[in-house]
């Protein structure tokens, strides 16, 4: 395929029907999110079956570290998505390539630093986390191998971000599927030592993830170069593989607030768990199950939010503000429908779904059903907030959505739950969900309608 032909067929989010394009673009993102969650769940089953509670405890500590690392790079990846999208919308392919080149060098350098520090200080990091002594050795073994795979994990996430920024959500999904299949299949083979594979115990699970990420990353690169992907770095583009500090500055200025947004969400959840623990083990178990169920309920909102960000970024770059408005409200409507359907189904089969995780007799299942009755519908509101925030961020206005999250989750939700729960009862904790999400929606919609986010810029026109 010639370069000119590649340019013609490359995906564009600035033309065509908005609702259909948004729906088709968000589906692979949604399926990818579900796939990653299922991958983690299945691996946990393998580890629990073959290595028991100590194995699960060891990997849960390591997974907390990995979640933190993914949160840390999430903002940078999203900043790259938006910069690439805006440049492509404005038909500045050369500037989009500059973002790709600088992002590649930045992510590669960052991944090597993180991997080296992790390999050297895994034991110290796990001590800081107060890892139980009886699982410490297992956790260190697992964590070191996972850290060794960080360059492939970071690289994989960056390429997925670049593809989504350019309007391609299908290719990342296919290679996520490959990675998940490899990981799930290799886990029991390497843990238990089946057939020609060595018995590696806890290290086998980490090596399975390492191999899955390495193979998927390499094959994705090979695929993109074989297809002559228009944003690939060719021999004539090697001068772009440098740290362009205009782009680096934008990655930090815009990426850090988006990464901090995930930190705010995580901190809010940790404080809530600490509060729920004070009401006894049944409440903790019920809340854990409700959280797992709600993680699936949130997936349509997260996928639509990601799709809206990429679509809006390209249309902002093209100066098509009328389409940006239609993208926003199409995303809101789609979230209400998709999340609403899931919520209705879960309400109809609430006890049965909670019963998949908890004994059908006892106090915990009743608490879990009750939590779902109060909180599930609030994730429709969360989705509206997420979509509107995604559009605002796509222009480069990343501070206000962070402030809104901080206000809603740490200024409204936590004091409401912490101060009032012991005075007015357990239910206040659950009512803090719809109340905090409603505050977030009101503030975001007001800023969308009356704020100056449309004047924000990701970076100067020329880098």
TrEMBL record:
GO MF annotations, alphabetized: antiporter activity; xenobiotic transmembrane transporter activity
Pfam families named in the record: MatE (PF01554)
TM ranges: 21-42, 62-84, 105-125, 145-163, 175-195, 201-225, 258-276, 296-317, 329-349, 369-388, 395-416, 428-450
Record carries keyword DNA-binding: no
Membrane topology: Multi-pass membrane protein
A Gene Ontology cellular-component term: plasma membrane
Compartments in which it is found: Cell membrane
Keyword terms: Cell membrane, Membrane, Transmembrane, Transmembrane helix, Transport
Protein name (Swiss-Prot/TrEMBL): MATE family efflux transporter
Organism: Paenibacillus ferrarius
Coarse class of the protein's main subcellular location: membrane
Domain of life: Bacteria
């Amino acid at each position: 395929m010639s370069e000119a032909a590649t340019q013609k067929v490359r995906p564009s989010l600035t033309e065509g029907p908005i609702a259909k394009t948004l729906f088709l673009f968000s589906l692979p993102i949604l399926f990818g999110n579900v796939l990653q969650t299922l991958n983690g769940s299945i691996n946990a089953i393998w580890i629990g079956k073959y290595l028991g509670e100590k194995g699960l405890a060891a990997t849960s500590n390591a997974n907390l570290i990995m979640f933190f690392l993914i949160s840390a790079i999430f903002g940078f990846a999203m900043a790259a998505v938006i910069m690439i999208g805006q440049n492509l919308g404005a038909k500045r392919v050369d500037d989009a390539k500059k973002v790709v080149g600088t992002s590649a060098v930045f992510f590669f350098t960052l991944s090597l630093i993180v991997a080296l520090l992790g390999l050297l200080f895994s034991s110290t990091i796990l001590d800081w986390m107060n890892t139980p002594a009886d699982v410490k050795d297992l956790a260190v073994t697992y964590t070191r191998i996972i850290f060794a795979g960080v360059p492939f994990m970071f690289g994989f996430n960056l390429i997925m971000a670049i593809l989504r920024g350019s309007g391609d959500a299908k290719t990342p999904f296919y290679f996520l599927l490959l990675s998940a299949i490899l990981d799930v299949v290799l886990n029991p083979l390497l843990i238990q030592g089946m057939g020609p594979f060595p018995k590696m115990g806890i290290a086998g699970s980490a090596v399975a993830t390492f191999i899955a990420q390495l193979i998927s990353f390499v094959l994705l690169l090979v695929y993109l170069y074989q297809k002559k992907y228009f944003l690939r770095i060719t021999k004539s583009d090697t001068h772009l593989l440098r740290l362009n500090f205009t782009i680096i500055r934008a990655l930090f200025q815009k990426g850090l607030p988006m990464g901090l947004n995930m930190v705010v969400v995580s901190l809010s959840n940790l404080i809530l768990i600490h509060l729920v623990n004070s009401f006894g083990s049944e409440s903790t178990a019920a809340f854990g199950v409700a959280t797992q169920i709600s993680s699936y309920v949130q997936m349509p909102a997260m996928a639509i939010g990601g799709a809206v960000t990429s679509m809006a970024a390209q249309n902002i770059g093209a100066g098509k503000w009328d389409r940006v408005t239609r993208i926003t409200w199409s995303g809101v409507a789609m979230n209400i429908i998709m999340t609403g359907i899931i919520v209705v189904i879960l309400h109809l089969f609430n006890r049965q779904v909670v019963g998949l995780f908890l004994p059908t007799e006892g106090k915990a299942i009743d608490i879990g059903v009750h939590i779902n009755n109060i909180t599930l519908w609030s994730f429709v509101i969360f989705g509206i907030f997420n979509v509107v925030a995604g559009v605002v961020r796509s222009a480069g206005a990343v501070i206000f959505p962070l402030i809104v999250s901080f206000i809603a989750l740490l200024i409204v939700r936590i004091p409401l739950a912490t101060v009032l729960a012991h005075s007015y009862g357990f239910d206040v904790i659950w009512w803090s969900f719809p109340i905090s999400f409603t505050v977030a929606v009101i503030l975001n919609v007001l800023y969308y309608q009356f704020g100056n986010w449309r004047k924000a810029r990701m970076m100067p026109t020329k880098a």
